[in-house]
Amino acid sequence: MAVVSVLVQPSLRVFLTLLLLVALPVARAFDEDVYGEEGWAKFKEGPKWQEQDVVLPTYPRADDLIEVPLSLHDFPFTLWVDSASLDVGDDRVVRYTGILRSKTGVDNVFYEGIRCAKKEYQRYAYGSGGEFQPLQRPQWRPVRAVGQDRFRSVLMDGLLCPLPGYDHEQQIVDRLQARKRRNF
């Protein structure tokens, strides 16, 4: 019996070594990011990235609004996203109409875009009197997880970003609605 165990031991080591050598590349193949969004924060845009022309959407209707639970301490607003305005452009910018509603019922309506790859946002217009007023010189600004603008960080973290592989807008709507169901 001792002779058999000595012979089995080295062959078992060889077998396990061969198994690992074969299994690791196979496991990596299954872990491949087929949609190009893995580690979206590490994604590097090419030098030729150019923002597409932006067309302002129609003003939001109450039927199209999705409440987004934020769970932010001392954040005095409720966030609503207009599902009809959601658009993922060819430039990979997620554009949407947002409404920040104060506890007293005052609405701050805006249309903006988020670049997931750069963690930036750009506001294109403010809502006033039932229509959008475009900004003259919108600029890309960093998304920060502090202050009154921290709601964008929540939006980026798994709701708008990373971009889904297909049917972008519907999948983002599904994410927003799922978050609402989980929090109520």
What keyword list fits this structure?
184 residues, 3 helices, single chain, 7 strands, Lipocalin, globular, seven-stranded antiparallel beta sheet, alpha+beta, 27% strand
Describe this entry's structure for a reader.
The structure is a single chain. The chain is of the alpha+beta class and 184 residues long. It has a single domain (40-45, 54-183), classed as Beta Barrel (Lipocalin). It has three helices and seven strands; from the N terminus they run H-E-E-E-E-E-E-E-H-H. It has helices spanning 2-30, 151-156, 168-183; strands spanning 65-68, 77-88, 93-102, 107-115, 120-128, 131-134, 141-142. Strands 1, 2, 3, 4, 5, 6 and 7 form a seven-stranded antiparallel sheet that branches. The radius of gyration is 24 Å and the shape is globular.
Concise synopsis of the structure shown:
With 184 residues, the chain is an alpha+beta fold.
Which band does the percent of strand residues land in?
25-35%
How far is it from the N-terminal to the C-terminal residue, by CA? 65 Å
Low-confidence stretches are 19-41
Please state the structural category. Answer: alpha+beta
Shape: globular
What is the CATH architecture descriptor? Beta Barrel
Helix content: 25-40%
Largest sheet: 7 strands, antiparallel
Helix count, DSSP H or I runs of 4 or more residues: 3
* CATH top level class name: Mainly Beta
Give the mean pLDDT.
80
CATH fold type: Lipocalin
How do the helices and strands follow one another from N- to C-terminus? HEEEEEEEHH
Q: Into how many domains do the coordinates divide?
A: 1
How many β-strands, per DSSP?
7
Rg (CA only): 24 Å
